[in-house]
Amino acid sequence: MDKRKVTKIGVLTSGGDAPGMNAAVRAVVRTGNYYGLSVFGIMRGYSGMVEDDIVHMTNRSVANIIQRGGTILKTARCLEFREPAGREKAYHNLVKHGIDGLVVIGGDGSFRGAQQFSSEYDIPCIGLPGTIDKDIAGSDVTIGFDTAVNTAVEAIDKIRDTMDAHDRLFLVEVMGRDAGYIALHSGIATGAENILIPETDTDIEELIQSLNEKERRKKLVNLVVVAEGDKFGGAENIAKIIRERIPAADTRVCILGHIQRGGSPTCSDRLIASHMGYYAVESLMVGRNNVMVGVINNKIHYTPLDKAVKEKQKIGQEWMKIVKILAS
Ligand code: F6P
Fold it and tell me: Looking at the chain, which residues constitute the CATH 3.40.50.450 domain(s)?
């Protein structure tokens, strides 16, 4: 570990926003100030670094935000930062402000940027997993997942009421371009008959067979939760096939979309964000670099950023078995 003392740190939120990012920013700012560091907020992710949109943060700058969704620092996906010239500009802007440590709150794309940057320049970077997708290795939890999944559950419970009243087949699409965690958790929690996720190879014949079987047994409610990144490309595509193959089923589709990214963070997301924010600053102070702060078995755990991105979080196959058993 590099024992060089940090004095001024920058914090940014990058990639898709996630409820709880504000709580994490608040924790970084207040912990930094507590330890006598200067803290700077970098606006719109790496764009603010490239364009020198960097503001000094006091404890008052982060007042009344712990309960708010979105991110007061805004977020963006910055193409310029992917180029060496963009990163060089960003470095010079940090140097101009005297920033000698960075906290990056975001998902895999944001961590790739942080890793690249800290391998080229002498500014240590600490990552905090802020993504509703929960697809990062090295942490059982990510900031925003719990809120997103609870938003999905609340919506699906409402859909169930009307689905039940009409004896309909419903396909509910939840977010997750490359990860099925929101689908899996919200599907199990709402009693879905089938859950389709990118991590497993959706077998359409098996799905049709299971729906036909339920029709035969007069199972009244037929709920299928689909992650947007499922092999068939989402709920609309699967509904098309079902309508052709089971015309008798009264099939409807509901795409939950970006409502899953917004809203006030749950208590759990506020806690993990606060916890991780504190440890991000502590990490910079003890000389850690290029690691993500995560939580494994309720304990803080540090994972190299490249490992967090490369390995992803795996979905245990026993979950899919449980889904089948509980839907019978
Ligand atoms: O935040 C992650 C995520 O929700 C993915 O699951 C989804 O595919 C993506 O963001 C969509 O984000 P955007 O509409 O901002 O590109």
Answer: 8-144+265-310
pTM of the model: 0.95
Per-residue pLDDT reduced to its tens digit, 63-74: 999 999 999 999
Task: Give 262: exposed, middle or buried? Use CB within 10 Å, 0-12, 13-18, 19+.
Answer: middle
Distance 131 CA to ligand 1 centre (A): 9
133 is catalytic: yes
CATH superfamily ID and name for 145-261: Phosphofructokinase domain (3.40.50.460)
Pocket test for ligand 1, best of 134, 175, 226, 313 (most atoms within 8 A of CB): 175
Handedness of CA 309, 286, 12, 30 (dihedral sign): positive
Which of 149, 185, 228, 261 should be mutated for ligand 1, with most atoms under 8 A from CB?
A: 261
Q: 8-144+265-310, what's its fold?
A: Rossmann fold (3.40.50)
